[in-house]
Design brief:
Layout: E1 8-16, E2 26-33, E3 39-47, E4 63-73, H1 98-104, E5 110-112, H2 127-130, E6 131-136, E7 145-152, H3 163-167, E8 197-198, E9 201-208, E10 220-225, E11 229-230, E12 233-242, E13 247-256, E14 258-259
Pfam families: 4HBT_3 (PF13622), 4HBT_3C (PF20789)
Domain Acyl-CoA thioesterase-like C-terminal: 126-254
InterPro entries: ACOT8-like_C, Acyl-CoA_hotdog, HotDog_dom_sf, Sec_Metab_Biosynth-Assoc, TesB_ACOT8-like_N
């Protein structure tokens, strides 16, 4: 939407229809409503049996994996009522020295998060190859809440275009319920220490608030919180702050909690066109 001077996302709604795999994809964008201030587009991502020219996807063979509605605007042109609210984070995270995190990989209050052991052969969490996470040295204040700082391993800055990806990087809140080694899990307050789960996103809603500065932000702080985990379904609210403490975006998720074995099983190719 850059040609209409509406290059930014005001909000977005994503529906994950099927498992997406690393590899080629075609994204088709349909202009649903074009306006002077706000425009809406429909986005669909396809994989499998892709064509090298229009129509790009093979009818009856290519699979539609994800659909989204994105409302576009120009964040730099928005002017209107701005009021201060009384909202604050309960149990705020400890302070941070970002220079120490960048230089030494930790500071007085934050340490690197390492969980590569929570993987199976063939089931790798690839985002951990691209991102560095840091968690409170003292531990999280609640099983159902996680605070962390993150940055891209490549050294690039996050931009507004990164926010949907960032919002979907931490469904692992279940890991906070792991029993200590040798402790028996009760499946109410704890799960077995060695259980490995997969958390496919079903729905993701993203609300861009202040967004990130034009230069981007090399560090982001996030808080993810689950209100209820029941019958293999997980809700998740994620708050994303830039490195200066400004609220950049809020996301709401519906995730499933499945055994990691489910992500390793072979599937029949289904047409989703």
């Amino acid at each position: 939407m850059r040609s209409r001077s509406q290059p930014d996302a005001l909000c977005a709604h994503f529906e994950f229809l099927d498992r997406i795999v690393p590899g080629a994809a075609v994204i088709i964008v349909e202009e649903v409503k074009l306006g002077r201030q706000l425009s809406t587009v429909h986005v669909a991502l396809y994989q499998g049996h892709l064509l090298t020219e229009a129509p790009w996807v093979a009818k009856g063979e290519s699979s539609r994996k994800l659909v989204a509605y994105v409302t576009c605007f120009n964040i730099n042109l928005q002017k209107g009522l701005t009021l201060k609210t009384s909202y604050t984070l309960s149990n705020p995270p400890p302070p941070v020295d970002l220079e120490s995190l960048a230089r030494e990989g930790g500071d007085e209050h934050w340490v690197p998060y390492g969980a590569r052991s929570l993987e199976l052969p063939g089931f790798e969490i690839r985002l951990w190859d691209n991102l560095e996470f840091y968690v409170p040295r003292r531990g999280q204040y609640s099983h159902s809440v996680v605070d962390f700082w993150l940055r891209l391993r490549c050294g690039e800055a996050f931009t507004n275009a990164s926010l949907a990806f960032v919002a979907d990087t931490w469904p692992h809140i279940i890991d906070g319920y792991r029993a200590s080694p040798g402790q028996e899990a009760d499946y109410i307050n704890t799960i077995p220490a060695t259980s490995i789960y997969w958390y496919p996103t079903v729905v993701l809603n993203l609300d861009i608030k202040q967004g990130l500065p034009p230069r981007g932000s090399h560090w982001l702080r996030m808080r993810s919180e689950a209100k209820e985990i029941r019958d293999g379904k997980l809700d998740l609210e994620t708050l994303i702050y830039d490195q200066d403490g400004n609220l950049a975006a809020i996301s709401q998720h519906v995730d499933l909690v499945l055994s990691a074995d489910r992500n390793l099983s072979k599937r029949k190719v289904k047409s989703r066109i």
